[in-house]
User: Which sequence fits this backbone?
């Protein structure tokens, strides 16, 4: 039975699983495959096959332990993956915040001009097509008349040049942070220069980001520890059962051998007696 | 001290209010304190009891003596109980993760406060600023969403973890007892 289960897992012959079981998420050993949204069922099956091949279950209780080991190992991997992606996301967010506060106006002027032109286009509906763009360009170049005109347009609305500037800076910061994550050399150089100019480094930013969300990281670490401890306990139980089983087998072999000796001795003794 | 008249009035009122009257209301009220039913034995659920029987047969077959049958049944019960706890935990996380609009209560409150502040400041006909709209429409995504869910569900997860720990312990001893008897 265990051999059959193991071969099922190894060869990933899903056809052996009934359609109903598939719908219910049931797999081998009668344990549900507890996958979360977006997790890879094939990778889970592969892990199950590998563990099964390594442990070689001898009975259904071994199979239960294997199902647990796989499920717990999957959980450990899940929490590790989450921790690593959360740390990366926090680092990028922290970098974005740093950049949006420290970028020079020249570095995001193009974005400011684009955003302003778009807003003016919506606000000044009766103007010709080029007028908002020209005004935005002049404003981005800091021409006093243009700036005054735009301020006048924005009066009595929630819009302001500062808001648009902040938005443009944030947009550029986001773009640069994404490029940094993709290891684009030009962005890396620019970011390192900016960080050095304020006496900071990417490690400092990372530490700051972690400090802000340490609770989440600790929570994930706690879940990882629980899953690891339980997985190790399962492996110890398998060892204990194997040891007990081998002890029983050893005793059985000794008994059989003893009986065999007795059977063998009897004709020999008869011969010697003769 | 409560007056005699007040006591009589309280008793009369209590007699008048005898809880839900319809079958649907009574069945709903019966489930008021029920959260996940994990403290109930698996034998209370007919579907789970059937699974226990099925697993018992898988563990020991049908020809074993009564004592082995009983030990196998106990082992099967602990295994099904463990599965039940894990499924409850999985369902808790899975439901939240598959909800595309998942948001924590705290963030809901923050967004509502922001929207009220903006509406008070400007004319109601003025459209909301883009950055405010961005905040109001934002939802936790990717690792942030998962981390938010873990933070929101900490209490339930801790409770389920206690159930799982107990279930694991019960199963361990059930397996040991079964193995010892089998030898």
Assistant:
């Amino acid at each position: 039975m265990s051999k059959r289960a193991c071969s099922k897992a190894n060869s990933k012959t899903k056809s052996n699983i009934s359609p109903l079981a598939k719908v219910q998420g049931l797999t081998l050993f009668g344990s549900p495959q507890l996958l979360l949204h977006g997790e890879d069922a094939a990778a889970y099956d592969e892990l199950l096959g590998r563990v099964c091949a390594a442990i070689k279950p001898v009975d259904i209780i071994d199979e239960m332990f294997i199902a647990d080991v796989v499920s717990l190992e999957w959980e450990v991997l899940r929490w590790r993956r989450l921790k690593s992606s959360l740390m990366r996301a926090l680092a990028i967010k922290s970098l974005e915040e740093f950049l949006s506060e420290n970028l020079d106006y020249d570095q995001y002027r193009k974005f400011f001009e684009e955003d302003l032109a778009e807003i003016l286009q919506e606000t000044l509906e009766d103007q010709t097509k080029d007028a908002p763009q020209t005004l935005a360009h002049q404003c981005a170049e800091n021409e006093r008349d243009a700036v005054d005109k735009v301020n006048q347009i924005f009066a009595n609305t929630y819009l302001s040049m500062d808001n648009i500037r902040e938005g443009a800076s944030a947009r550029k910061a986001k773009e640069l942070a994404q490029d940094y994550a993709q290891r684009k050399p030009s962005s890396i150089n620019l970011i390192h220069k900016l960080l050095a100019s304020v006496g900071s480094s990417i490690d400092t930013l990372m530490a700051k980001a972690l400090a802000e969300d340490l609770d989440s990281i600790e929570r994930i670490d706690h879940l990882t520890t629980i899953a690891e401890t339980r997985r190790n306990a399962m492996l110890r139980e398998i060892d204990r059962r194997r040891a007990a089983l081998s002890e029983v087998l050893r005793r059985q072999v000794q008994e059989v051998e003893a009986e065999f000796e007795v059977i063998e001795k009897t004709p020999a003794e008869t011969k010697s007696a003769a | 001290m409560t007056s005699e008249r007040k006591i009589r009035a309280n008793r009369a009122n209590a007699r008048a209010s005898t809880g839900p009257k319809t079958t649907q209301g009574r069945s709903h009220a019966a489930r008021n304190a029920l959260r996940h039913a994990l403290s109930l034995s698996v034998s209370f659920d007919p579907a789970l009891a059937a699974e226990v029987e099925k697993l018992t047969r898988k563990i020991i077959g049908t020809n074993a003596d009564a004592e082995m049958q009983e030990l196998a049944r106990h082992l099967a019960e602990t295994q099904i109980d463990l599965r039940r706890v894990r499924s409850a935990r999985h369902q808790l996380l899975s439901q939240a993760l598959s909800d595309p609009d998942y948001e924590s209560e705290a963030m809901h409150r923050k967004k509502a406060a922001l929207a009220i502040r903006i509406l008070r400041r400007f004319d109601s006909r003025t459209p909301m600023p883009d950055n405010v709209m961005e905040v109001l429409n934002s939802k936790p995504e990717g690792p942030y969403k998962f981390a938010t869910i873990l933070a929101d569900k900490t209490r339930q997860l801790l409770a389920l973890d206690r159930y799982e720990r107990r279930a694991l312990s019960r199963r361990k001893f059930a397996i040991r007892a079964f193995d010892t008897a089998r030898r």
Q: What stands out?
A: Residues 214-273 of chain A form the longest helix (60 residues). Residues 89-212 of chain A form one domain.
